[in-house]
Amino acid sequence: MVPSLIEFTTSSNPPNSELQIKLSPSIQTVVDEIHKENPKLSPLIQQFYQPMQARVDPPLESIWVYTALTFRSRNHPKGDILDRIAAAKDLFQLLSSCSAPCGSSKSVALLAPVVRLAHDVVLDLFKRDLGLKKVMKEVKNLVGVILGFINVCCSGRDSGQEEPLIDSSSGWSFSGLSCVWLDRDENVRNLLPLVSEEVIGGLTERYGDVSYLAGVVIAEVFLLRLCLNCKAGTSGEVLETELRTWAVGSITGFQNVYVFEVLLRMLLEKTLPVTSLLSSEDEVLLRKALYDAIILVEYSFLNPEKAIHISAEHMKMIAMRRLILAHEAVEYFREHGDQRRSISFTTAFSSSQLYSQVVKWVRSQIPVEDSLVKSKGTSPKALIKWLLNLERRGFLVFGDSILKYHSLDMSKPPASKLDSNEVDEDPIFYIDKKRRGEHTDDGEVNEYISAAFLAAANTMTSAEKRGKKRKGESSESEEESSLSDEDSE
Q1: pLDDT in tens, 141-180
Q2: Gap between the Cα atoms of 192 and 200, Å rounded
Q3: Angle formed by the axes of helices 46-53 and 16-34, to 10°?
Q4: In DSSP terms, which residues pair with 297 in a beta bridge?
Q5: 81 Cα distance to chain centroid
Q6: How far apart are CA 41 and CA 210, in angstroms?
Q7: d(CA 96, CA 71)
Q8: Residue ranges of the domains in the chain?
Q9: How crowded is the C-beta side of 291, counted as CA atoms within 13 Å?
């Protein structure tokens, strides 16, 4: 473990109001100075040293500003790419040391400036000669170190209680404080370069929840590593498989609802926020791999009964986005001519825990005797149409209209009618090994994941070899008939 740069006292924490009386004017002084043409920041460092000593778990504001001023005062060279990598490693050392006494979420959230530096280095590297093996090795090492730190934090997760990123009594927002890391012509978008505006907007929705910011930072490092993997020399289906396998293993390791939510938000947008790093072809491969990793895998940490630290409303919001993404993925593959995959996604959803959970939530809110409680079909599209129908009758199962989360086009024919080839009833595969404190080496995990994906691929492929359904077969179940009726509306 990195030794702490600051000797924190074990005295009782002074009231927040006392700290804010000291911090707020000092922060304002720093912000005013930063906007000057020739700021003098070094003399201000000491003003944030004392507040960090005052509490066992220092306020994020004090660490945030202290480390920004300290890093700026070191005047790292910015020309040579290896010097920039060295500067990023130095900043990582500084931030991880100062956050040593903090909880896991705060420790990860504080890494946002390091991830920004790593992104900028990778962006510059991709524009240059990728034959610079030494530089590529150093970049991968940097990203690997950050991921290693994150994995350690995730393995010792906080209780998960949502806490404000910035104390509301300070009068500062995350956007306002971000300027201590930025040049005068930059904004918070530059500090979080690997997520979309919609994801950044989530910080405002959550009033700066530190757990959400930690999820954003983890998702950024996750995408950065996947972008590096795209430049490893492989391509096509081989690359897609490698991306998918690594993504599933990482999400399973993180066991973090907020990371999953951020990835959902990004996948619901037209393009992933990696267009500055990847070609359009690689972005498509990455999207397909993430569709598989997010939709086709049952992660135990998403079970509402286990996510006791997440509010029921929050879990419902995530479930709604998962449902919409499943529908979008089915339509995506249909539109791109991959009917086999489209049907497989539809069938996988029908047997998923998500489908069962949504139906359970509906039945808990609608009287049993109400005929509307009967689900008409099990595809994502059928379930969405059912929920919209319930909304028209006054039942808001998720508190808000489903249309609030994403615009939907329900006019297209369902995937189940595009191809009459038979598919397995349950092509979904379960990857997430429930963690109970055991430690498994990477080789075993990779072997386990690879075997699971191979089995899934074989299941999907076998569907193409089984011909069309025989005419005159016995009628399908009542629920499947309802699906046809619903989809034909």
Answers
A1: 999 999 999 999 988 655 445 555 555 445 567 888 899 9
A2: 8
A3: 160
A4: 429
A5: 28
A6: 27
A7: 13
A8: 297-468
A9: 27
Residue 33 burial (CB count, 10 A): 16
For residues 374 and 163, give the distance between their C-alpha atoms in angstroms, rounded to a whole number: 39
Determine the residue type at 96: S
3-state DSSP call for residue 428? coil
Cα distances from 460 to residues 72, 251, 294, 422, in angstroms, run 54, 23, 17, 10
Q: What are phi and psi of 209, to 5 degrees?
A: -60, 125
Q: Using CA atoms, how far apart are residues 329 and 265, in angstroms rounded to an integer?
A: 13
Between the alpha carbon of residue 126 and those of residues 77, 121, 136, 242, 390, the distances in Å are 20, 9, 10, 20, 50
pTM, two decimals, is 0.81
Instruction: Decide: helix, strand or coil at residue 152.
Output: helix
Let me know: does 191 contact 182? Beta carbons within 8 Å.
yes
What tokens does 29 get?
A: 């002084």
Q: How far apart are CA 65 and CA 227, in angstroms?
A: 30
**Distance, CA of 129 to CA of 127 (rounded, Å):** 7
137 DSSP 8-state letter: H
Tokens of 286: 């990455």
Instruction: Give the contacts of 309 (CB within 8 A, at least 6 positions apart).
Output: 159, 160, 161
**How far is the C-alpha of 306 from the C-alpha of 55, rounded, in Å?**
32
pLDDT tens by residue, 278-330: 999 999 999 999 999 999 999 999 998 888 888 888 899 999 999 999 999 99
Q: Contact at 8 Å (CB) between 215 and 114?
A: no
Q: How far apart are CA 60 and CA 353, in angstroms?
A: 37
Q: Please count the other Cβ atoms lying within 10 Å of the Cβ belonging to residue 75.
A: 8
Q: C-alpha angle 136/138/141, rounded to 5°?
A: 110
CA-derived radius of gyration, the chain = 25
Tell me the three-class secondary structure of 464-476, residue by residue. HHCCECCCCCCCC
Taking CA 441 as the corner, what is the angle to CA 440 and CA 444, rounded to the nearest 5 degrees? Answer: 85
Q: What are phi and psi of 183, to 5 degrees?
A: -75, 170
